[in-house]
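Bench notes, afternoon.
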Amino acid sequence: MRWWLYTFFFTLAYLIMTPHFLLRMKQRGGYRLRFSDRFGRYPQEVCDRLAKLHHPVWIHAVSVGEVYVAGQVMRALRKAKPKTIFVLSTTSSTGWKEAEKLLAPEDVLLFFPLDFPWCVKRAIKAINPSLLIITETEIWPNMMRACNRAKIPIYLVNARIADGSAKGYRLLRFWFGPVLNMFTRIFAQSRLDRDRLMSIGTNPDIIEVTGSFKYDVAQRAPEKEEAIRAFLARFGITECHTVLLGGSTWPGEDTILVNIYKRIQARFPNLRLVIVPRHFEKADAIQAEIVKAGFRCLRKSKLTPTVTAPSDSNAVILADTTGELMGFYGNADIVFVGKSLCEHGAQNMIEPCLCGAATLVGPYTENFRPVMVDLLASDAIIQVPDATALEQEIIRLLEDPVARKALGARATATVNSCKGILISIIRQLVRAY
């Protein structure tokens, strides 16, 4: 009875959200890509390829951050078992673009099916996986029930229970407890996540605290860094300049950074601002804010290889392209990580820390709770409560290059000391298929 109720309410929620999905299709052309995948219906060419696979490993990663985790798992499993073939699924169009980079010729990329019983069963029948590995905390009851019935092991890696979700899960413990116990093994990011999973009703015997996978995922990208270095040099930005970078910023944070830059640029003439927004489709609005503040906006997506600017230009660079953030981090001196000041959750602060940038975040970093515990304990990151404090800390770091570089060095050392989580997990996964 409860499964029928869940499916009924899931259907109702999906119908209510349909206008939102249609708007996303309009705003992000990629979202309509292979939309039939979400109903477990694949193009004939994909069906033919799936039919030739023999019990592949199915890995699901909802979006870009989770795709990076999935990629690390795929590389490690392929190293342990070279003949492993993967079906990689994602939910977002941006996740799809990054996922394409991870595939071997024999691997298959799909969109994850909607959690309707008929969609799930159709997908499982087509894929016929040896096991399902889910990254982060994607809990889809009908999918898990179907895998459980088909005796397909399910693993949850890099698991976390967000602050905002914990109370809801506990209130629905009678429902989510049995669902979570369908996992073969849950690899949790922190003791707090383990405790929250147990409070929901998860059997403690299937939970293992490993730390965050994202440390192992973070890798510097020398080729991208060199390409971005050359790009910046075209606009007179060299090693004698100090680059302030807003990474994966959300609406409101861009405006804050531009206004800070406007107030302090004359005081620090060698300072240059680069903004890499989380959603590049919002670039028009960000450009308007930059122009409103009195700066020239150089949008990377619209710059030809011959376009340059005067070496003394204080123009703001708007990097409205995808897949280049690590290259920018490797060329930044001070980084503010977005979705932490005007939005809740935070984007990945491990990456700029690895690159040795002096890294700042706002008060809302709950998506990276165990990581923040490590970084704060090592004095390897600066967390500010508001925009005023952010400006004060940026000024302090600009006035004290020695302290700035020391902060970046501590950040790199901390990230490197936390790597190595994957080894024990991979040993368990390879025994499952």
